[in-house]
Amino acid sequence: MKDKILQLKQNCIALDIEGKAKYKLCGTRFGGKPDVPDGFIWPRFESEDEDGVTANRPLSFMAQFNCEDFAKYDSERLLPDHGLLSFFYEMDSQRWGFDPKDKGCARVFWFEDTSALTTAEFPDDLEDDFKFPMVRVKMEKGVSFPSEDDFNVIFPGENENDEFEDAFEQATGIAVYDAGGGSQLLGWPDVIQGTMFDECEFVTQGYYMGNPEGYAVIPEAIRKEVELTAHERWRLLLQLDTVECGDFELMFGDCGHLYFYITKEDLKERRFDNIWLISQCC
Question: Which tens digits make up the pLDDT trace of 232-270?
């Protein structure tokens, strides 16, 4: 089991998101106003909020990354080495990603030519609570290992005696509960409520995953195929943890994460419009 855990090691880019940021055009940062090309149409998403009000709401700008900043940490050259990657999420309804109708609640844009970008203004109907202050983002090279949930999917039956925690610590020198967490680009997700690769595949195929009844209607052949291959098809693009800066705190649910997933094929082809968003919390 130790060898299998080490075989699954992935590189990631650890993100330290804290402290006030100074504005820089096309700079890496959380919050503030995004830098966009002329003619940019601010993304919107129609949904029902917790009060039952349906509206076509603007997404919140979450973060942008100048690709040159993380290129030296991306040893596998999975991400673009130029341009700007920008992440948006609709914060009012805060969709979880288990419903096919959640498509569009999060968006990722890759702007290749940074010389053509200028700072956007917020939409008039974006509520002040969903306009976030600029927060500094520091990066460093990291490594990540699968959670027990993901390991059990990849190697079914290997963990029958619940030996994963001991094997993980022996293999990595890190206790399971001290591994992962935080914000990162790439790598294995810090799983809170269970593996997500198959959920990404099922939902993007049109199946509702918000209750057991939704899972039950999936044909058995499709279930087996997805559960065997989804982890090979999908990978984590960005994991966003709680952000704190001075008096500002943004927490997703109860100590949760936002996860932006993308298929390996779409990542290779730079089709960032095909991401899928999942939210999990304690």
Answer: 999 999 999 999 999 999 999 999 999 999 999 999 999
Tokens describing residue 150: 């993901």
User: Exposed, middle or buried: residue 246 (CB in 10 Å: 0-12, 13-18, 19+)?
Assistant: exposed
Structure tokens at 224: 């087996």
Could you give the 3-state DSSP secondary structure of residue 23? coil
The amino acid at residue 76 is: E
What is the C-alpha separation between 70 and 214, in angstroms, rounded? 39
In sequence order, what are the beta bridge partners of 10?
144
Q: How many CB atoms lie within 10 A of CB 273?
A: 11
CA atoms within 13 A on the CB side of 226: 19
How many Å apart are CA 97 and CA 210, to the nearest integer? 9
- Tokens 């500002």 correspond to 248
Residues making up the chain, counted from first to last: 282
Tokens of 188: 């294995």
- Predicted TM-score of the model (pTM): 0.96
Q: What is the pLDDT of residues 11-50, one digit of tens each?
A: 999 999 999 999 999 999 999 999 999 999 999 999 888 7
State how far the Cα of 105 lies from the Cα of 96, in Å rounded to an integer: 9
Rounded Cα distance, 62 and 106, in Å: 10
